[in-house]
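#random but structural
TW: two for the price of one
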Amino acid sequence: MKLKLIILLIVVNFKAFELYSLDFHKGTIDTVISFTPGKGQNIGQSSDYFPQNIFGLPSPNANATTPASSPDEVLSLGLGGEIIVGFKDSYLYDGDGPDFTVFENAFINPINGKVFAEPGIVSVSEDGINFIEFPYDFQTLAGCAGTNPTIGSQDPFDPSVSGGNSFDLHTIGLNRIKYIKIKDITDKVLENPNHKFYDPTLSGFDLDAITARYLIYDNSDVPEVPISGNVIAFINNLQNNALYDFYIYNLFGAKLFSSHNKFDFFTNINNLKQGFYIISIVEDGKNYYFKFLK
């Protein structure tokens, strides 16, 4: 089979920790970048409560019919309000299944069985400047946060039992992020009395917590490793009988293959699925790094 590689000329640097670390940990948001309150309700906005009321785990007492509601548990964004939060010392990576869960105080009305939902649209960013929005349906609110009750008695890191609204970075094609934005759209629901989730008492998104399942510490103090140029040209110029160490990593930093000659190296590449990879070639203790797309 003929090997086809698209070689990228990289003008940025690749962090060494991304190549060698795959130590995921679970956690919650721990920093607020900005908060723009909307109109109306302002529960939990006082400095007596905010931002501590959105850090940590969701209310353990919340359930399908009894939501968290005290100012030390939730922050009301208000109608049309917006908040950007993040992780101080970590990046959130795209792992297996949902990557993070947003907990609001949605609940099921025991009288009519209808979900009392105050929705927010969710977008994420790696640099805090360019945000990508998760797709959603305004009519059904599918894809929004704030539509599923919190089940505080269950594991908040297990989306299958925790309640809340979970999001998968794979949905929008991102490998990692550091910032999460929530924009209340309850005001839009209130403008439409025929909307499925319309209720005249809606007052805006109330944030309880955000949990993350695949965090990796941001070792920004690790020296940057320069990316070299054309890997094929580099390898073709190597002597056939010379001793080199070849390593192939995915973008999570997991080592996939290693070999000691360029013929085995090309065989290993043939066995890879399509996607981005990092190649490390070691010659007499000197490392060369290449990024490529198969």
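TW: number two ↓
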Amino acid sequence: MIVVGVDGSRTGLEAAGWAAAEAELRQEPLTVAHAVPRWVCEGAVHYAEVAQWMRDGAETVLSAACDRARRVWPQVRMEGVLLPGDPRSALIKASEGAELLVVGSRGIGGVRGLLIGSVAYGTAAHARTDVVLIHEPPASPRGEIVAGADGSPGAARALGFAFAEAELRGARLRAVRAWAWPHPGGFEPASREREQDTLRSLKESLAPHRERHPGVHVIAEVVHGHPVEVLKETSARADLLVVGTRGHGQLAGMLIGSISQALLHHAPCPLAVVRG
């Protein structure tokens, strides 16, 4: 099952369309979910008219999102559900046991100037399943998936996700490892020897995934630079960017690492945040 959270916003509708395409690729049913205050679902006695008005509006949001999804893939098995409670906790609970949770990067309630909404951040940080955030999906398939691969256990799981996605889509996979060791005066300068060592390590980490997905065309790429800037640039023409929740060098206890956090805000394409 794939769950997509919608709220009537443009990015919510884009998320519904993306999730429908993904459900078709995976041959999974799609649940289109919209959260409303709990008292609206419980039939408030004193505010019955207001509750009914809100339920009617919620049904309109669900209907529009389901219509958007059906326009993309009319044959996908789909249901629309109203979820009681806070959108973050409601979507996290609804996605328990799901293969994927899909949300728009910013909803109707987003604060002006913020690049990502609280629901998108909350689900990416706390959901028990993999989460895809939809910023601005490509108008047409580009045939490439980019995965961040820093050699951490979380990156290994992200690579597995990326290989599977590339195989489903018939796309090539670009596995990218950025390296730039910080020093008091900036970053370690580029070195041919260090670059070759890093590339060798990257290719070794790809080997088990290549064996499981022999049909996927893989490009292993090592780039000297800050990981956020490198991944932003390499994914500018990609269908999907895949990262783990936490990589090397992240503080213990953090629910989502600084690199993944930055990409939540700045990824130029749909972003998959894969649980470690």
